[in-house]
Amino acid sequence: MKTPSPGIMAAGLIGLTGIILISIGAPSSRKASAPISETSEPAPPVSVSARGFSLTSTSVDLPVDDASYPDGPHADVINANCTSCHSASMALTQPALSAAQWKATVTKMREVYKAPVAEKDVDAIVAYLTAMPHQKAAPATGKAQDPDPKVAPDVSGGTG
Amino acid sequence: MDNFDAALASETSRRRFLRRTALGTAGLAAAPALAQQLVDLKLPGGNAERPMTSAFPGKGSMILQRIHPPLLETPMDVFDKSVFTPNDQFFVRWHWADIPTSIDVESFRLKVFGHVNRPLSISLAQLLRLPRVEMAAVNQCSGNSRGLFQPRVAGAQWGNGAMGNAKWLGVRLRDVLDLAGVKAGAVQVRFGALDQPVVTGAPDFEKALDIDHARDGEVMIAFGMNGEQLPLLNGFPCRLIVPGWYSTYWVKMLNAIEVLPGPDDQYWMAKAYKIPATPGANVAPGAKDFPTVPINRMIPRSWMTSLPDGQAIAYEASIPVGGIAMGGDCGVAKVDVSSDGGRTWYRTTLGADEGKYSFRRWDGRVPLRRGPNPIMVRCWNANGVAQPMKPIWNPGGFMRGNIETTTIIAA
């Protein structure tokens, strides 16, 4: 293994110092030490390093979606069944699909992705989905092929 | 007309939904005023407005497709600034909502097992000590641009921003497999990750590559992205990099590498992410019972990014235009541009070559007429494949690659 030049070593030292400084944070960003030792300071993030690259333990909070499906017939059913695995926006942003396509989608959620949806609720969910405002939009026109999505089977399995 | 119709006919409900979504995330992020701004992805048939969000950890301003599990799209103007996509604006796509939110770099292990001589449990400290490689490569969702398909198809309704380009730093998958000692008769390698289905019995997200592909010396396990560790939402602490192939194979939060003595016949390889086994993955809308294959190599694409679609500008005889191109599974050979609907094409100048799997900048100049000017970009890759004029169609909305048009209005 080649010995690093003094320049590279200096750059590495500066980089390491930078990482340490960043991980420590600006003085003002640190909490003042607690007057009583009841609350322990959170441990500094743990890192592993080798050959000039470090990985630091990470902890994040992901936003929680509290949006529900808008009011309408069977909104209670879809809100009870179709918000835990994915946001309501997944359905609300879909293009106009036929009732058969929506039924196939709900069936796929039940049978392939094991969504705990009772069979008796499927028709109500499909009724809600097909009545969403954009489901009534005029079909797209223009450059592409004959727009007849209702006859198009999805054999791709999704997704992406 | 029932109450439902009355309430929804004027689209107010959708707008209310968008506002509620934005407010919900703003409250959680405790950020000052999450942008209320909407972006119009201009998907044919409408329903194309999405809120912008900065509420996700490690992420700046992104197009919000879905909060849970996250689908975040990169705004197109980001691609105009550099061929490398900043980590905090790199697109995000998760299948299952059970995503670990805390990763301890000391206890994390990457396991290698199955049809091998020496099963391994590799710590990150060990991974960092293996021989390194760095490579620029475009990571593009199989369904990037799905929302532009006509007829429209179900699925995540992406515009063009479910893609990004980064310098990936890591180790060769081949080196890791060689440490484990692949046994004779290995056929595929399957990759698993820390994210899990939220319901029992649902198919865990796993993908597989043929053994020769896995050992080609290009497929990587990356822990660095543009010089930093990966954002958690892009797969921290390490993910698979499959240069030239669609992102479905670029398994995030990779923690399991299983060498298989036969092909992977589980859901995510056998059923999902399948394309028609036809040229260009193209079938006529309504076609049935065509044979399918797992999606694989990417194809050439290009976009104008110097002006947004629909931009009005003061008339000039000609204007400079620029953008990005990708060759797909090989480099970019040339990029041509047209402002007259494809009758006249002008050669562009390519920017720095950052590697055959990277985005490549292009810049050119086109004449304008008064009124709308449809500006088209066409990339030819190093294998001689050019973007077709006509869009393809398939029911999964995969592999769009036709010439894209950006309309500029000169007044």
From TrEMBL, chain A:
Positions of region (Disordered): 31-50, 137-160
A single MF term (Gene Ontology): electron transfer activity
InterPro entries found in the cross-reference section: Cyt_c-like_dom_sf
Protein name: Sulfite dehydrogenase (Cytochrome) subunit SorB
Species of origin: Stakelama pacifica
